[in-house]
Structures are given as C-alpha cells and as structure tokens.
C-alpha cells in the first residue's frame, strides 16, 4: 500500500540519488583532467616520455587514491539510498555540504599529486575527506533517528558509526602527515576503517542506547 | 486513469527533469575546476602552501557561494517538477535560457573569485543569477497559468512570486556592489528571499487576483 | 501486451536516450569552460573588466549559439526517442558518429568565438553542425524505414526531411562564410530551417514515395 | 514472481548501470577538451588556421579512436547489464578498476594525439585499453560463473572470451608499436577482435569446459 503513495513534491528519493550519482561520476572523471600533460620535449623520445611518467608517479597514485575513496563513499551511499523510502528536509539539506566536498575533492587531489610530501597538502586532503565522511555520518544518523529507513534502525545507526570511524581515521592521518612522509598511502585503507572502527564506536556509544540496539559484528 | 496516458512525444517530464539535473550537476562540479592550482614554488613548503590557500580564500568562498545557490535553485526545480504531469512548448522552451545561464555561471564565479571587490565582477555574477532566477519565475508562472501542475494553482503562483523576489534581491545587490565592497557575501542569504520576499510580492499582486488565491505565510 | 516484452539485451531505448542526454548535457556545459578568463590586469578595475567583457563579445555569442543549437538538436532527439519502442543495430550504430560530433562541438565553438570573421573557422563550425544534423537525418530515415517508430512512418520520414534541410542550411552557410563576414549569426535561425526547408524537401522527394505519404505543412 | 523482489540494498543493477553510463559519457566528452586550441597567430587568416588543423590531424584521429573504442566498450556493457538481474560484491567491485581506467583514458589519448609515433605513448594507450578490457572480461566471467545472468551461462562465457580476445589484441599491438609506426591506427579494428578472436579463445578453452557449452560462431 505505501508503495503507491506519491512522495511530497521535492522528496522523491530517486532524483536525489540520481543527482548524487551525477556529482560523484563527474568529480571522479575530472580527477584525470588534473594530471599534467607532457610537453613537446618530454614527448621527443620513448625514453623522455618514460622519465616523465615515472616522475609523475605521485599524481597517478593520488588519482587512483581519490577515485577509490570516492567509489567507496558512493557505494555506501548507494546502499543507504536503497533503504530510504522518503526524504526529509534535514536529510536532503545535509547533501549540500556533502556534495560540495565531493565536487571540491579534485582540487586537494591535484595538490597532493604535485607535492605528496608537503604536510599541508596532506592535511588539506585529509580534512576534505574527513568533512565529507562526517557529512555522510550525519546523513545516516538522521535517517536512523527520524525513521526514514525501511530496515532496522539499529543497523542504520551502526552504519553511521562506521562513517564516524572513517572520518576519525582521516583526522588522525591528517595529523600523522606532519610526523611521517607519504602518509597519504595509508588512505587506501580508509574504507577498512568502517567495519572495524565502526564496531568500536558502537561499543563506546552503547551506554547511551537501548541495550538491544547493539548488534555490531565482532572484528 | 490519467497515469496510463502516454505523454505526447517530446513532452515526458522525466527526461526534461533528468536533463536539467545533469546540467546542474556538471555546472556545480566544474566550479571546482576554476580554482587556481598552486605552482611549484607555492608547494615548496607547508608554510608556502598555507599562504597560498589563505590568499585564495575569495575563490573558495565564491565556489561555495555558487554551489549553494545552484543547489537551492535545483531543489526548487526538483519540487516544481514533482508537481508537473505534462509539459508544454512554452514550459520546455523557457528551460533553454534557464539552463544556458546555469551552464554559464562557472564563468562569473571564477571572475568574482579572482576579484571579489571589483563591482563589475559582482554585477556580472548578480546579473547572471538574476536572469536565471527570473527564467525560473517565468517557468513557474507558465506552469500555474496553463494548468500543468497537479496541485493548487494559487500555490504555484505563490511559488513564482518567491522566485521573482529572489531575482529582485540579486538585481538590488548588483547595484549595491557599486556602493559597498564584498556585497557578494550577502548572496549566501538569497535563498531566504524566496519565502519572505515572495509573501510581500504576493500581497502586492493581490488586487489582480481572486481574493481566495492568497495563502501566503506571514513572515 | 507488447509493453511487457523485454527488449533484446542492449536494445533498451531508455539507456540509449539517457546516454545521449548525458553527452549533450556535458558538451553544453563544457562550452562555458572554453570562455577566456580575465587576467589580473583585466580585473584591476571595473572599467578594465568592462572592456574585457566587451572585447570578448564574440565568445559569448558563440557560446549562446552553440548552446541553443545543441538544445534544439536535443529537443528533436527527445521527440524522436519518445516514439521509439525498440532499437536496431543500425539505429544505435549511427549514434556513435552523431554523439562524436556533439562531443566535438566545443572545439569549433571555441575557434569561432576567438575569430568569428575567419571563414575557415566558420567552415569548421558549419561542417561539424552539418555532419551532426545529417547523422540525425540518417537516424530518422532508419527509424522510418525499418518500422521502429510507434507512430505514422510518413510523419517520421517528414521529420527526416526537416533534418536534411537543416544540414543543407549549414552546408550553404559554410560556403557563404567565404563571401560575407559574421555569417555565423545566421545560424541562430537554423532551427527554423527544419519546418520550412523540410516541407520543400518532402515535396521534391514525393515522386519516389506513395502519394498519401506527403502531409507536409504549407509554409 | 522474482520480478517483484526488491534487491538487497546497494545491489540494484539500475543504479550501477546509470553510474557506468555517466562515467563513460563524461570521459568521452572530455576527450574533446584535450584538443589544442589555436592561438592568436594561428587564427590570423584562413590559411593559417587551415595549416594548424592539418598539423593537428593526429589529435583528431586520436580523439575519434578513443571515442569509438569507449563507445564499443559501452555498447558491450549495455548488452551485459540488460541480462543482469542482481549484483554481487565481486561483480560490483570489479567495476571500480574498470571505471578508473575509463576515466583515465583521456590522458593517454592526449599523449598519443600529441606524439603518435612515440612507441612509449602507444604502449601507454594500449596498456590502458588492455587493462580496461581485461576488467570487462573478469566482470563477464563473474556474471557467468555465479549465475547473475538471466540467459544461457555458456553464452555469457563466450562473451567473456570475446573480451579477453580484445585485451590480447591491445597487448600485442602495444608490443607492435615498438616495431612499426602509427600502430594506433590498427586499434580502430579492435572491436572486430571480439567475435573472431573470441571464437578462437572459446575453442582453446573447450577442454576445461563441458562439451555442450561451446556454441561459438564459426568465423
């Protein structure tokens, strides 16, 4: 029966999901536009072009890193939206800063690609990712608390904890960048922070919740 | 019953909504491409990169401003299209200048980002936004007058008044830019002009309408 | 009954329509990326920026021209696809050169924007548009001859004649560019070639068709 | 009956198909952004612009090549997804490197456009295409082995063989580029490697399969 109810104008989940997809797809494809093109001299011989490509390896690594991170955030959003039947103003409104940070990411990616050992560059990238993932966490908290999801609210809350864990991982690694070089390589493992760190955070937050809410997997 | 009628060729609202979404998403993501990338010298140290980022703060502010404004216009269009069952030539035709101005916006955004205190730059941006929002108002007027909306026509007309109010806000602020610096910061509040200014305009236009049409909220 | 038949794999019209929309939307939005950004000196004062904008007027005109032309081609494609129930290999295959030319258009647009009085630039633009519209005409002919459309095949054939007329208009104007300057302004009227020129071409092709096919409007 | 079952969250094929379409459409349209724009001197006369366009012919060829190759990969993906009813983690996960390579392609395209006779440039392009098509082959193998397709698994496996053949073609041509110049022109024929080479590979792999699986066409 609820399937036939038309959502209120402006609150059809499909169009928000579509819009989010488009922003992600464009941001991910624009990442490759940032890569430096070789000039005439660097194209003069196979050897010269080879040296150019080796010199630019950090750029390619940064491109792959940002692509994989955005992919994993997109996948989590895909899973979230498949559980949402209707939108609320808060749920939709928090997509504005979330998508703004997605659209912004090519800029920090270009910066770390050009100077991966500069801790300020690493902080800029980690800060953008941390803010993006925290927006994701807020969106999940809203969906869990206001009953927008079709499934178990406890599960939705646990998913939010996973997002907070990823955000925390980026904040910590942004600090670590001032102590160790090439900290950005660690970010390839950020998607793993979600299941393990999320379980930890769920456990810490248990006192504030009903005891039957916590069904976190044991890592 | 009306749900099973296939719209005339070229007048399926879904494809126009989709096309509009795509133009908005691309324009919003391209905004970040406009941001200046640091050169080698500015990447040499954490301090140099920090100074560069602080120097470029107007660009980041302009990026965020244009992103939020396009988001709010997109949200209003989302709400409008969810009430539309079929298209007309006039309704569709006015989307051409509307979307042209959306696609154009990254250019004035780059200009105000590079020179926020230049009143000509502010006028260019405010003029583009004013023209875009006035196209939106015309689209709403058409939907209200020709019975394309499924809901209350008076409500649709009131929405159009909100759009006119936002357009007026941009025209006034474009003029204000010649008198005060940093007028563009005021534009962050433009979405608020819609409910408050719209109610005012609705009241002013009342004599030309049936008295039962006006159900404007009291600000 | 036919509505429940799943089309053969790879021949669902929706996904081709969607893909076409995406290419059009991106090409149209990228047009604005081509516009020259003012440098520091041109941003120094309101007067300097004003002179820059006036100097660049051809670029803005070329942007608006290409946007409106792509919009009108997109609208015609929208109307075509709303009549298509299934795809064929030929119908789909001709979308490859068609969309290639759509994606290519920002390049000739940038060239005429920078040098509108250069007849070679005009020829490049007119040639690209002529080839694109001729691909459109071939796609329409295929849909009419192989019975892919749901409506009257004669109507579909007449639509194809309209496309051929627009293509011819661009070829003629590409030649005219060597004789008169600013020929490109005439292209704003190209969408009008479709109803009037199409009727003419339909009349010329009548002997090769059944007499009851011709239901062209009298211009 | 199975048609009414809602897929598990995050495993709705439509949204993955849509996302893939968006990445392809953007990458294909961005190819044209790579083309060098003529400078003021090259725009001074019709003759100067003509020489510029002739000089840049390799860029236009590379643009057309990459566009057609991506189009043919997209068409094959379109046909694949129309046979998929549900997703699996492996099937979805292999889309990440696949789409990463699609998004990356404008870079090698720009490089071969600027220096088509440099064997390192050819190797970079052929390597990117080979890796992309091998990801496609893996995706097809997964769909055939884990029963995600609605049709005959043997047919799906045969399709995968076609993809492996195209990948092999690119690896061989990447090697050939060190022996003969302009090897990249051969890549226009890569889509043909799928039916012919695929039949060959299917025959070679027959001993490892049930005899009734092989229904490869005779080339």
From TrEMBL, chains A, B, C, D:
Keyword set, alphabetical order: Ion channel, Ion transport, Membrane, Potassium, Potassium channel, Potassium transport, Transmembrane, Transmembrane helix, Transport
Highest taxon of source: Bacteria
Report the subcellular localization.
Membrane
Q: Which residues cross the membrane?
A: 59-75, 96-117, 164-190
Which Pfam families does the annotation name? TMEM175
Q: How does it sit in the membrane?
A: Multi-pass membrane protein
Q: Which reaction does it catalyse?
A: K(+)(in) = K(+)(out)
The family note in this entry says: Belongs to the TMEM175 family.
Record-given protein name:
TMEM175 family protein
What species does this protein belong to? Streptomyces tauricus
């Amino acid at each position: 029966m609820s399937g036939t109810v038309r959502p209120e104008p402006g609150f059809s989940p499909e169009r928000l999901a579509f819009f989010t997809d488009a922003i992600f797809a464009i941001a991910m494809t624009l990442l490759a536009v940032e890569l430096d093109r070789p000039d005439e001299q660097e194209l003069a011989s196979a050897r010269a072009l080879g040296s150019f490509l080796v010199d630019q390896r950090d750029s390619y690594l940064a491109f792959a890193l940002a692509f994989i991170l955005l992919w994993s955030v997109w996948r989590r959003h895909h899973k979230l939206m498949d559980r949402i039947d209707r939108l609320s103003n808060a749920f939709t409104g928090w997509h504005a800063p979330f998508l703004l940070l997605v659209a912004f990411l090519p800029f920090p990616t270009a910066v770390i690609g050009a100077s991966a050992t500069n801790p300020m560059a690493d902080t800029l990238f980690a800060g953008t990712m941390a803010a993006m993932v925290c927006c994701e966490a807020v969106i999940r908290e809203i969906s869990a608390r206001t009953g927008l999801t079709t499934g178990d609210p406890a599960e939705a809350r646990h998913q939010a904890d996973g997002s907070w864990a990823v955000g925390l991982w980026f904040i910590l690694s942004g600090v670590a960048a001032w102590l160790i070089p090439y900290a950005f390589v660690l970010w390839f493992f950020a998607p793993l922070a979600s299941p393990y760190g999320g379980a930890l955070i769920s456990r810490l937050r248990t006192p504030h919740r009903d005891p039957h809410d916590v069904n976190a997997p044991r890592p």
